[in-house]
Amino acid sequence: METIEATFEVINELGLHARPVSRLVQTAARFKSEVQVEREGQVANGKSVMGVLMLCCPKGSTITVRATGPDAQAALEAIGELARQRFGDPR
Amino acid sequence: MTDPSPSRRLHGSAAAPGVAVGRAYVVERRRVSVTRRHLEPPEVEPEVLRLRGAIGAARAQLQNIQKKLAPEASEHSLILDAHLLMLDDVLLVEQTERAIREEFINAEWALRRTVERIKELFDQADDDYFRERRSDVDFVGERVLRHLAGSPTEIARPRDLHGPIVLVAHELSPADTAALGRSEVIAFVTDVGSATSHTAIMARALSLPAVVGAGDATRTIANGDLLVVDGLRGVVTVQPTDFEAATATDRGERYIAFARQLRSNRDRPARTGDGVPIHLRANIELPAEAAVAIDHGAEGIGLYRTEFLYIDRREPPTEDEQYETFSRIVRTMAPKPVTLRTFDLGGDKFTTALRLPREMNPALGLRAVRLALREREVFRAQLRAMLRAASHGAVRIMIPMVTTVGELREARSELEIARQELHFRGVEVPEVPLGIMVETPAAVFVAEHLAAECAFFSVGTNDLMQYALAIDRGNEHVAHLARSLDPAILRALSAVIGAGRRAKIPVALCGAMAAELMALPVLLGLGFHELSVEPTAVPEIKEALGRLSYRDCEALVDRLWGLTTAAEVEDAVHQSVGALFSDLLAAGGATPVTETGTFLLPDL
N or C: which end of chain B has fewer CB within 10 A? Predict the structure, then answer.
């Protein structure tokens, strides 16, 4: 199975705190593909709130999202769109 | 029935405004005790099912709580969302199931161990916010454990406690506070937590006063103790005297009245009883606080601390980023004026954006304007952002910790260069008044010369007291010696006012002293017409100003010059205005309102 990846910058003021992580995980969970989130060599399951929280991504950090599975492309696009919208945070 | 022993006070962070009096209900949320049990092979799958059943029950319970939430508690609801996701988290569930299957251990033991491991990982985070998330993991884990153990999960109102109750806990989970419902609980007190913890956020969402981080509240407060929870000052009074309870009730009612009157009152200008107008402005740190300042009736921002933008990040903020932030504040406040202070970094303020050497004596080291004049590119980027923001309203720029006229001149020339740079980019900006913080003894001594070359002064009494009285505010052995009514401080303030008056420039005061009720008549009598305080202190100071007569204050100050000690000055002031302020002073003492700047932190 092919794995595709994309890199995003965390632009919301407070970084990936509980709420944006919840939205990220909820989005990832909509897809069949496996989703991984990596920051500075640390990898987390993109469908695990605790896992992604533990990456401790502040504003300005860069995350790499990898998707493996039948709907990998769609999953990456959905997550990319969410990242551009500050993961739903107002600022 | 008055307790003959003196009442005790616990100090914490003022997490949600208001004052409440009620009986304590101390939540002894003892952790579920868990023992390890070895499983026989046929027991394994039923054990996994038991775990899933408990998770399902916990999920249903959280969803049920969420359903009952009032629509205005959306903050609450989002936190519960995160907890619901954690409940089904692969890390938690899979690791626990694997432990049951592979190690033949009971569900409780497997779950507790998984939770502890996850918490350890969060402990390693180098960021406070993420470190605090381990409490979320704990809340979720304990909730499932209680289902596994068959012990009651919700905090229930104790039968023998009647009337309004104050919930006292080590820490409260969002589900706990939601399950209680607001009719029964009138305030929260917790041992741990800060203004950004769940309890604080929830309390604000529910409009209940709260004091968090009160140390060993759960150990020193007994069930049924009468408590005064002063969420304006961060003080809990245990077993108050009848008088303390009554005045606190008054204070609470006055706060509610203030809150109700804000709309009608906030446009009423601050003035003394005899009609002298006083510019009462707000000190803020976060852009979101501008709205809070307006709600509390502040007549502009007297101090915006820009260093917040530099802290906890790798690179300094860009000009555009700062421009966005500044202009948001300026537009929110317009036409009311906003004083932007250039970054006061170094010293005690930790920064990662500018790599600074460790200093033996940071208060006397490379900080504020000194750092700005060394990091000129960073300084200029900030000045450009400030100049651009000035197009949106009335902006003043203020330089911190100036000690010499030379520094002021250099800062001014940087400001001119910044203006030129913008001009070359085709950006024209309005003239902006440049002023300084007077907060070093040197600046007081040469105030005359500084006043001749700048547009305004703002006295920072916190630093001025530290430098003038040679007292480290953070040193518990000497901190109590820092008294704002010290004759030395009065003379310093008088010298600054005099220099400003002769040069015909305005002199403001933006330190904590401006929010000290007993200092207020002295400041007026010295001739201050502009004060800047934390946003939430504005209504109270406005009220206090209205009770004072400017003329009487001048007469009072005339009498102070012959007094030789801080205690004598304090006595004289107390005799003069103590009765006027007795109700305002009674519940919390003359402690300035601190840490209230974080009241409306809008996020988790």
Answer: N
